[in-house]
Amino acid sequence: MKRNKTMHSLGRGLLSFFMNAALILFSLTCIFPIIWMGYSSLKEKRAFNADIIGLPKKPSLVNYSRILSNPDYHLSESMLNSVRTTALSIVFIIVFSFVVGYILARVSFRLNRVLYAMFLLGMLIPVHSLLVPIYVVFRNCGISNQWFTLIFPYVSFGLPMGIFLMEGYVKGIPVSLEEAAAIDGSSFSYTMWYIIMPICKPILVTIGIIQVFACWNEFSFALVLIKDVTLQTVPLALTQFRGQFASDYPKQMAAMLITMSPIVILYFAFSKQIIKGMITGAVKE
Amino acid sequence: MLHAIRPKRNIIILYLLIPTALFLFTVFVPLVTALGYSVFEWKGGPVKTFTGLTNYVTLLHDETFWLAFQHNIYLVVACIIGQIGIAFILVMMVGSKFVRLKGIHRTFGFFPSTISAVCIGLIWSIIYHNQYGIINWFFKAIGKPELCRVWLNETDLVMLLVSIPLIWQYIGYYMVIILSAISSINEELYESAEIDGASGVQKACYITLPLIKNIIMVCITLCIAGNMKAFDSIFVMTKGGPGKASMVMAMYGYQISLNQNNMGYGSCISVGIFVLSLLVIAGSQAFIKFLTHEKEI
Amino acid sequence: MKKKVFGGLLLAAVLLAGCGGKDTGSTYQESDFSASSEGSIVYMGELEIMHYSTSEESEGNGGSDGFRTVLAQWAEAHPDITLTQNILANAEYKTQIATLAAADDLPDVFFLQGMNTIDWAKQGLIYDLTEDIKSSPYAQDYNEAYFNPFMVGDKIYGYPALTGGTCTVVIYDKAMWKEAGYDRFPSTWEEVEKAAEYFQAQGVIPVAFGNGGKWQANSCFLSTLANRYTGPDWFLSLVAKDGAAFTDPEFVSALTEMQRLFHQTDIFNVDFNAVTNEDAREYYISGDAAAFIGGNWDESYIWAMLKDSDPEKFDHMGFAVLPQPADAKMAPNSQNIGLGYAVAINAKLADDPAKLEAAIDLAEYVTGPAFANYVTANYALGGLTKAAQVDLSAFDQITQDFYNWSYVDTEECEIYDSYITNAVWDVLNTDLQTMLNGDISPEEVAANAQAAYEANYSKE
Fold first, then answer.
1. Cα–Cα distances in Å, from B93 out to A156, A206, B78?
2. Quick check: B48 contacting C, CB < 8 Å?
3. CA A193 to chain centre
4. Per-residue pLDDT at C19 exceeds 70
5. Are C249 and C270 in contact (CB under 8 A)?
6. Please, which chains are in contact with B (at least 3 CB pairs closer than 8 A)?
């Protein structure tokens, strides 16, 4: 009996070791690229080509200074454009996803499933081969090449996933909550905003982070719908690195790190809250 | 559905109006426009020639398009198994009481999803690089240089090689979705199961999985939708090459529209992608329903 | 001795000039040519130009640097006109301009790629410049042949822009080839194959090439190699739809030879199909490869890189034409050279004669003598207009060699993808990549290209 127990705890120990090891390995592969990009961007091209994995022997910030000092990239302007576009898009995506997702999950009306299917179809649109029609439609309506232009596609193409996740989530919430609220005399809107929304915090945070990165990194719409250099977003402004200097990997990495930095810093700074937001707020029946 | 409170119709319309209008305008108007273009021979510019269904007939016989379709299906299957499967296992492991550093795993695991596809493509093309690449460096380091390959030039392997970065990138994405779904499961359920002596695997299979079935379906649909229109990182890594060995549908449509200036046929391809994605999703839903139904009996 | 004198001269020149590029000390002087058109332009307001000469691109690249310089001069000379520049890197430029063309919304002035000329002219998107070019103040200086890719029948749709340069040059390290027993780069592929054995034994790539972008095998190899089999008339006939076909035996022989060279010999780097030309030229710069095949843009990059970092290897740079295949009978000394882009004008400007006049003035200025003189004086490169007199002695030996190789010592042939339509080249390029891996036959490649040609290309 005792022996059996030690075997059991040994097995547990092994299992725990194995699981921890596997997860640590996984986390390392996830984080390695940015670390590697970080120190590689401090190398000169020659040093990088000679040894891609080693640490830089003579680290220098020359790649960064050359990018940041080049007025053609108008980085501060494009950062501002990216921040504004992303922030506004996220607000709209979250609010719209919540409202539409909730209504589609809870309220029965004739067009409910039609509407749901329609939003779902939005995920299937092959954006890259539809760039020309999108441009034509936007231009004909006079809304291409404006400061707010990109918010339209970012919100619209972010909505399907948001609504989809939201609807699925709300369906998991017991109806009894709302029924109880209704008995207490709560109106539909009040119930939605003040009772359901807090419960949905995890999924809203999830939608938010997924979409923040999608908007920040988006490239194709920004390329096609924006002509004015002062309206370019960061990913577009930094494309000028490719072409002539495409093989200068350290410099490209520096450019990418600059592109990513605001959002990545934000992510790591708030990761605790984000993760907490994602996993708390569970429904207690 | 909610029966206790019946909201007024006007309120519902009011809430739905703006998002629906916006969505219809940005997503469906271009799609309908493309549908219109697809019945023309149109090389861009103001001149169009109506050709009826000619483009669609061409599409049905276009070997490249159907090859690309097969590649998309390959991606879908690889990513459902790779992304959602691995994500589920990882979430279960992170949730286990044996595991430390939970916060770090959750934070880091999502990290690849934050990197732009262009950047992912670049990172992995360096990893696969013949001369500078990490894989070949590794084989040389362990004294097996004969295993070195020009990875992205291997016609038979290239689809697998381009799907690995995709899987790697999106594991974190599905992890957060599954994680948020699991957070809504009542802790007491696990506690009572534990008292009954259920193992971790049993808990995952018999409690968690059935309870988050909805969200897993959502994930599968998201995964299919995403991979039927895959484009960016493959474009950066191989441009669909060698030859057409890693060509996917969206890339073919892009190539026809913008490289070959054949907008009419390119629009027809977009419509084709849309319809095929729809069929694959419908098929997968039916298939899963069939499977779960079987199980219940 | 000669070299030493040069060194001194060069040092003096660098000290004098102190600005980027292939400086020579012949400090650029504000051109007189701008005066010819000034005063006559009445247009006031906005003028939009789209191009891909980014500041990044212009470092060490004579064409981009020259274009940016003369464009700035023109803008300064016309303060009443607000010149809006939309600058994107080349790949993004191509995507955006194709979208704009499809939507019939092109900018006022832009860069037209040769292979789009016929399609866009047919659509009425680009302004017919035939008369304006004839009456241009620089008409007598124009190098007529450069207009060919931008002509439909006898109508001309653009002012060829940037620098005229080769698309296929063999850049080799003289010292490395000397060690292998060759005083100069071999003139036949048989010899290159023999040399390849030597280099492979040393662990050196004999010749580096990058076809990862799929267009390189066509632009920087086939275009010249096939000319050795077909001669120049075949391609002209193909362009004119005069009977030539991709399935002609001469062209198929060229494809067959190309497949043999890449697939069956050890001449090239094994990853030629997976790396771009930018990667492949790094093999040369780092000494991993003894030679490299690419275009003038690669030459200017290698030039600039080696000059700073490896003066010895810099001095060993040699230039050669593509070697001659054993069974080819034509033009052994040929290389494809030309101007791939032209400054074109939106056809809609015809409704606004004053704006049109300004646009034409701009196009003439940025492709005219001001540009040619700048790039000649600073980079020893040529533009659309014949350069006055090139004082080569002020340049380093390598620049002189490349100038002579490009413009004096070799025969010209056409760059395939400056003509016809990309609907054909896109099909051919994709198949070429597969063919170089040995996965489809040259006959099949030729047949597919011919089918695309028949379906997508007509002169009318």
1. 35, 20, 22
2. no
3. 24
4. no
5. no
6. A, C
Angle A267-A161-A190 from CA coordinates, rounded to 5°: 85
Which residues of chain B neighbour A120 with C-beta distances below 8 Å?
221
Is the Cα dihedral B138, B139, B143, B149 positive or negative? negative
Q: Which residues contact A276 (CB under 8 A, 6 or more apart)?
A: none
pLDDT per residue over B103-149, tens digit each? 888 888 888 888 888 888 888 888 898 888 888 988 988 988 888 88
Q: Are B45 and C101 in contact (CB under 8 A)?
A: yes
* ipTM value for the complex: 0.85
| Residue in A120, A124, A191, A245 to test binding to B, most B beta-carbons within 10 Å | A124
Phi first, then psi: what are they for C204, rounded to 5°?
-110, 140
Work out the number of other CB atoms within 10 angstroms of the CB of residue A269. 10
| Helical (H) or strand (E) element with A133 | helix A131-140
User: CB A223 to CB C52 under 8 A?
Assistant: no
Dihedral sign computed on CA atoms, order A241, A243, A247, A248: negative
Put simply, the answer to whether B5 touches A178 (Cβ < 8 Å) is: yes
At C166, phi and psi to the nearest 5? -75, 155
Out of A240-254, B189-203, C89-103, C356-370, give the one with best mean pLDDT. C356-370
Tell me if A137 and B33 make a contact (CB, 8 A cut-off).
Answer: yes
State how beta strands C81-87 and C45-51 pair: parallel
- Cβ–Cβ gap C103/A135 under 8 Å: yes
**What six digits make up the tokens of B124?**
């992995």
What residue type is A240 in one-letter code? Answer: Q
> Considering all CA atoms of chain C, what is the largest pairwise distance in Å, rounded to the nearest integer?
69
What six digits make up the tokens of C129?
């410049």
- Closest CA–CA distance from residue A28 to any residue of chain C (Å): 28
CB spacing of A242 vs C87 below 8 angstroms: no
Q: Does residue B98 surpass a pLDDT of 60?
A: yes
Q: Is the pLDDT of residue C32 over 80?
A: no
The residues pairing with B49 across neighbouring beta strands, listed in sequence order, are B41
Residue (of A104, A113, A218, A105) closest to A156 by Cα position: A218
Tokens of C399: 């620049």
Quick check: A101 and A194 in contact, CB under 8 A?
A: no
**Tokens in use for A280?**
């708390």
Q: Which residues contact B77 (CB under 8 A, 6 or more apart)?
A: none
Residue C113 has a CB neighbour count (10 Å cut-off) of 21
